[in-house]
């Protein structure tokens, strides 16, 4: 099976913590997992991903974290073929904001528009993300196990 690529976008570190927790869980489940800060990437870097997860918070009025803004504006304009990618999005937000998980919603939609296939529906976590993460991780890794079985590797 391909490696799992875990991407995060954060302002104050919550999404990065969830990303490293996801990596630990992936390792426990027998996956080789790499963690990437979207702020260090360009959209082109996504074209070799086969299994990907995006763990992103929302700031401002539905905006990406500052470090991920250049990546996001480039992805909005990019004409990429991501049809080789299967992905899931875990958003971190706060229900008190009108644009609850606005960036996670936009990213999830854009990846699908560029041809990527969802492994799971987007999950919009609230401030209690540490309580909702374990159940999401159970669903995500169960889904990955099915992918691994059906691919026969
Ligand atoms: C100034 C400010 C603006 C925020 N804007 C939004 C928002 O528009 N939508 C949302 O769902 N959450 C919003 N949040 C909540 C954050 O996304 C949430 O606290 C998240 O856990 C931060 O994760 P991070 O540390 O990975 O950046 C905002 C928080 C702050 C402090």
UniProtKB/TrEMBL annotation:
Family annotation (InterPro entries): Flavdoxin-like, Flavodoxin/NO_synth, Flavoprotein-like_sf
UniProt keyword terms in alphabetical order = Flavoprotein
| Family matches, as SUPFAM superfamilies | Flavoproteins
Keyword Zinc found: no
Q: Which Pfam families match?
A: Flavodoxin_1 (PF00258)
Keyword Membrane annotated: no
- Flavodoxin-like domain residues are 4-141
**Could you tell me which PANTHER family the record lists for this protein?**
NITRIC OXIDE SYNTHASE-RELATED, SULFITE REDUCTASE [NADPH] FLAVOPROTEIN COMPONENT
Name it.
Flavodoxin domain-containing protein
Give the species this sequence originates from: Actomonas aquatica
What lineage does the source organism belong to? Answer: Bacteria, Pseudomonadati, Verrucomicrobiota, Opitutia, Opitutales
């Amino acid at each position: 099976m391909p490696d799992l690529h875990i991407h995060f976008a954060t302002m104050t570190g919550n999404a990065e913590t969830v990303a490293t927790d996801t990596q630990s869980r992936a390792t426990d489940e027998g996956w080789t997992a790499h963690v990437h800060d979207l702020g260090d990437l360009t959209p082109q870097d996504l074209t070799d991903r086969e299994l990907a997860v995006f763990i992103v918070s929302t700031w401002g009025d539905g905006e990406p974290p500052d470090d991920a803004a250049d990546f996001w504006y480039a992805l909005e304009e990019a004409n990429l073929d991501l049809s080789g990618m299967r992905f899931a999005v875990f958003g971190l937000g706060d229900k008190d904001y009108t644009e609850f998980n606005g960036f996670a919603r936009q990213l999830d939609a854009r990846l699908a528009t560029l041809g990527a296939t969802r492994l799971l529906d987007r999950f919009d976590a609230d401030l209690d993300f540490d309580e909702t993460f374990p159940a999401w991780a159970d669903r995500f890794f169960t889904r990955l196990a099915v992918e691994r079985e059906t691919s026969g590797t």
